[in-house]
Design goal:
By secondary structure, the chain is mostly beta strands. The protein has strands spanning 2-7, 10-12, 18-26, 28-39, 46-51, 57-59, 67-72, 77-82, 91-101, 106-110, 114-118. Helices cover 0% and strands 60% of the residues.
């Protein structure tokens, strides 16, 4: 019913930048929260940043001042601009969204994940 399609990611040198995007589509009435989590090898999945449809943001301390999350509600799309990347940012980044379908059921979905590798 709902699909999340991610783009962006890849290999970048330390100090570089990348931009991730994620578009939600399907039988959507309203998207509430959208955001990004990441999982490094051998570690648990952790919050990167989440933004509500009202624009409130919750982000990890480790990315504050370097990563910026934004969204375009009309397109059900969320972006993550990542600057000053560090090797410890290397992980699979997962898009997340929750909301309400056109059948007025609650949805809660994850994207397929996109690899971000920060290495010289």
């Amino acid at each position: 019913q709902v699909q999340l399609v991610e783009s962006g990611g890849g290999l970048v040198q330390p100090g570089g930048s990348l931009r991730l995007s994620c578009a939600a589509s399907g039988t959507i009435f309203r998207v509430n929260d959208m955001g990004w989590y990441r999982q490094a090898p051998g570690k648990e999945r952790e919050l990167v940043a989440v933004i509500t449809n009202g624009g409130s943001i919750n982000s990890a301390d480790s990315v504050k001042g370097r990563f910026t999350i934004s969204r375009v509600n009309a397109k059900n799309t969320v972006y993550l601009q990542m600057n000053s990347l560090k090797p410890e940012d290397t992980a699979v980044y997962y898009c997340y969204a929750n909301g309400v379908t056109k059948r007025y059921t609650v949805f809660d979905y994850w994207g397929q994940g996109t690899q971000v590798t920060v290495s010289s």
